[in-house]
Amino acid sequence: MTTPTGRRERKKAATRQKIADTALRLFLERGYDAVGIRDVAAEADVAVTTLFSHFASKEALVFERDDDFEQRLTRAVTDRAPDDPLIPALRGEIHAMVRHCTADGAAPIYRMIDESRALREYEESMRLRHAESLGAALVADPGLARSETACRTIARFVIDAYALARDAADPQAAVDEIFEMIEAAWQAA
To answer: Closest by alpha carbon to 109, among 2, 22, 25, 169?
Structure first.
């Protein structure tokens, strides 16, 4: 996540982080379904409207790094040098995401997600949105010379690589194995 530069931006970012941290703590202590938006706002000492100015829904509180992940994936495409290969750039981002999501302390969060239908559905819609954004970035890159279908397909594979690797016994090895297949598919396109 980029660091806000101005005082106002830093203050907004700190408030957003405080709300997200408070929500996650409450969800893990009491259970996701047992905690309401008003509970989170009260505990974070903010108004409900302030909470909603930072997060569109209760589910978004759990996935507070969602926008950052999506931006990092699209930047892996748009910010790489023209002669830098695409697939290794995407692999690096997925490795970083998987490390973040499998770090110490992450297991209770993913158990909570697995136990909540609302969170599973939100995560699935988030992954589809990430795939669409990544696919659009691939299609827009004139140096890739692949069809829109190929670009959108590879984008889905990359997003699924993250989800599959996160649940694997050895997540980092799983990323490498999956990306060997993605590389072969990209070359075949």
So the answer is: 25
Q: How many CB atoms lie within 10 A of CB 148?
A: 11
Neighbours of 86 (CB within 10 A): 21
φ, ψ of residue 136 in degrees (nearest 5): -65, -40
Distance, in Å, from the CA atom of 135 to the CA atom of 148, rounded to the nearest integer, reads: 8
Residue 80 in contact with residue 89, Cβ under 8 Å? yes
Is a pLDDT exceeding 70 seen at residue 149? Answer: yes
Q: What is the pLDDT of residue 17?
A: 92
pTM equals 0.85
In the chain, % of residues over pLDDT 70:
98
Collapsed DSSP state (helix, strand, coil) of residue 142: coil
pLDDT band at 74 (very low <50, low <70, confident <90, very high): very high
Q: What is the DSSP string of 57-88?
A: SHHHHHTTTHHHHHHHHHHHHHTS-TTS-HHH
DSSP conformation class of 7: H
Q: What's the CA gap between 65 and 56, in Å, rounded?
A: 13
142 CB-side CA count, 13 A:
0
